[in-house]
Design brief:
This protein has three domains: 7-28 and 42-136, OB fold (Dihydrolipoamide Acetyltransferase, E2P); 162-301, Rossmann fold; 346-453. The protein is 48% helix and 16% strand. It has 14 helices and 13 strands. The strands form three sheets. A five-stranded mixed β-barrel has the order 1-2-3-5-4. Strands 7-6-8-9-10 form a five-stranded parallel beta sheet, with helices on both faces. A three-stranded antiparallel beta sheet has the order 11-12-13, with no helix packed on it. The longest helix is centred in the last third of the chain and has 40 residues, at 342-381.
Length: 513
């Protein structure tokens, strides 16, 4: 009696143990004849005899071991060696059986395979023809998934900077899942409740041999669609299935599915199993949903909520516009009251301008007269720099001569004469400085006088009005209608002012603005 590897294998192992007894009883009794009396076989006959004996004895066997030297042929057949710490067993799984496998074989995976023992006569080898593969234990499968996830994470496949944002309101949603399960119906039902959108389904197997390839092909198909093709290009993808065991979810732990999700230009929402189920596809996706129904909720907002928010926003905008209009109307009314009679304000401003012009004209003539008087007084006191220098030199020379005479008379000393010469040089320098200071003062006064000239006032746009007696008219009230006056402009020729006749005298200088 063999010890079963799992509780649910009890009957199978009883059946296998019974076959062993049959195998032993069916082996021909050893022939004790010697020499030419022994039966003679060709190599092929002996190989066929051995093959028949093995296939009859082990028509069905379960073997546990670790997969190594895994190989997939171009025809779709799978080959590997199943080994333990002492022996190895060659295994073959033909394409028809490989398509039904629930576990994808790979090196290092500990599995329990079921099949029949056969021989390959051309090389005198025996092998196990496999028709099913199971993971030897959930711990081994989880370790394989963990190692694969760590390797892909080290490549940066799950980095946050690779994540793409989910569009707020997609027009088209692509779904990669089985068309027979409840997942697609849950997604469609939830979308109809929240915000109906166009849905394009890529039907795919979600477990078993070939499921991972179909899922990866679906993601690649949607990314290859053009914007204006017969099939609309989705704005977001939902990739998922319902719940199940670790083995059932293995297609979403395959490397090719994770790489297809990471390479997708379209944002992907993963929705595999229940909230407690986590696959490698969840790490590669841009957003993980705990269930397919939750994925539909993440893909679109609630239309009723959007409508309510839109109405509330519209109401706030309308209220804000009304308040702004009322504020502007109030300000406009205030300004309108202040400008009740614009013509009155214009008249006041006109009077102020006329009064200011009268004062400027009167003040300008008076200032010119004062400046002329001051200029005459200054001119009388000032001498030219040449006269001042000449007088200073004369005084300096006389002082030097007197000093020399006094020194020669009193001392007659050559040393004192040298000192006197140095003092004379300093005296000349001092005189030169005094002359330069006097010249600068004279120049400054001349500039001030020039700036105060009536010609400068005329250059600024003013006009001097003279009566027939050639006196300056300073006030408008000194003029009469029909009176002839002369106007002196900046460009008037010397001695030839421009004649003019008063039509109407201006306002009196005593008028108030």
């Amino acid at each position: 009696m063999l010890t079963p590897t799992a509780p649910n294998q009890q009957d199978v192992h009883r059946w296998s143990s019974h076959l062993r007894r049959r195998r032993i009883s069916s082996i021909p009794r050893m022939d004790t004849r010697t020499g030419s009396n022994l039966p003679e076989y060709s190599v092929s006959e002996l190989a066929e005899q051995i093959k028949g004996t093995l296939e009859e004895a082990f028509s069905r066997a379960r073997v546990r071991g670790e997969i190594s030297s895994f190989f997939r042929s171009s025809a779709g057949h799978l080959y590997w060696t199943l080994k333990d710490d002492r022996s190895g067993l060659k295994c073959a799984c033909f394409r028809s059986a490989a398509q039904r496998l629930s576990v994808r074989p790979e090196d290092g995976l500990e599995v329990v395979v079921t099949g029949r023992v056969s021989t390959y006569g051309q090389r005198s080898e025996y092998q196990l023809i496999v028709d099913s593969v199971e993971v030897a234990g959930e711990g081994a499968l989880l370790k394989m998934i963990h190692d694969r996830r760590e390797r892909l994470a080290a490549e940066g496949l799950f980095d946050q900077d690779r994540k793409r944002p989910i569009p707020y309101l997609p027009s088209v949603i692509g779904v990669v899942t089985s068309e027979q399960g409840a997942v697609i119906h849950d997604i469609l039902h939830r979308l109809r409740e929240r915000f109906p959108r166009e849905v394009v389904l890529w039907p795919a197997l979600v477990q078993g041999e070939g499921a991972a390839e179909q899922i990866a092909d679906g993601i690649a198909f949607f990314n290859g669609l053009g914007q204006d093709g017969p099939v609309p290009r989705p704005d977001v993808l939902i990739v998922g299935r319902g719940g199940g065991s670790v083995e059932d979810l293995m297609a979403f732990n395959e490397e090719n599915v994770a790489r297809a999700i990471a390479a997708s230009e379209i944002p992907v929402i993963s929705a595999v199993g229940h909230e407690t189920d986590t696959t490698i596809a969840d790490f590669a996706a841009d957003l993980r949903a705990p269930t397919p129904t939750a994925a539909a909720e993440m893909a679109v907002p609630v239309r009723a909520e959007l409508q309510a928010n839109l109405m509330a926003t519209t109401a706030r905008l309308a209220a804000g516009l009304q308040r702004a209009a009322a504020t502007r109307q109030s300000r406009l009314e205030t300004v309108r009251q202040r400008l009740a009679r614009p013509s009155t304000r214009i008249e006041r401003l006109t009077q102020r301008v006329d009064h200011a012009w009268s004062r400027v004209t009167a003040d300008g003539g008076q200032r010119v007269a004062r400046l002329r008087t001051a200029l005459a007084q200054v001119s009388g006191r000032l001498r030219t720099p040449t006269d001042q220098v000449r007088a200073l030199r004369d005084r300096t020379g006389a002082a030097l001569a007197a000093a020399n005479r006094g020194i020669d008379t009193r001392f007659g000393n050559a040393g004192l004469r040298m000192q006197l010469t140095a003092d004379g040089a300093r005296l000349r320098d001092l005189a030169t400085q005094r002359v330069e200071q006097a010249r600068r003062r004279w120049t400054a006064q001349a500039r001030l006088l020039e700036a105060s000239s009536h010609k400068r006032i005329l250059e600024r746009g003013f006009v001097i009005v003279q009566s027939e007696q050639e006196t300056v008219v300073r006030r408008a009230r000194d003029l009469a209608t029909g009176q002839t006056v002369t106007l002196l402009f900046q460009d008037s020729p010397p001695g030839k002012p421009t004649p003019a006749q008063i039509v109407e005298p201006g306002p009196s200088s005593d008028a108030q603005p």
